[in-house]
Amino acid sequence: MGNKALSPFISTTLIIMIGIVAISLVLSLVKPSLDKARDSTIISEAFQNLNLIDNTIREIVSEGEGARATILLGVSEGKYEIDSNSEGINFTYIMKTGLDISGQKNGINITRAGNTIYLFIIYTKVDIQGSDHFTRGDNSVVISHEGINPTTNYPMIYIGK
Questions:
Q1: Nearest to 157 by CA among 123, 118, 119
Q2: Residue 159: is its pLDDT beyond 90?
């Protein structure tokens, strides 16, 4: 009688263990693909956001002193920083996967150190001002032409909240 009761217990346990192994196997195969797709989407979003900022800066410069625009910057992940020391705009993101990407695309520079990717635009004939950063969520970004820098004779463009 002890053998009959033990048999259903063993078969149920085996079925549960096989199910757990199958689920683990599927997740271990699917998760890297999902992470790679997410990284790719976030990097694409960063390119779009940097292009939006760059196009707005160019428009503000062409309009002259006093020109101003407010744009909405949607950020899923990563961090955007205004760096007035290097006259640039930087995006930093720690990837979940090892996407191999570097170089330049549409004036946006791309570098990678380990799993951290950096996208940035450096301006040579524009004096970038401000030191704000923009993180996850919807960010209202003000870009304004503050006049001409008397030392460099370049337009001073303020970027901030």
A1: 123
A2: yes
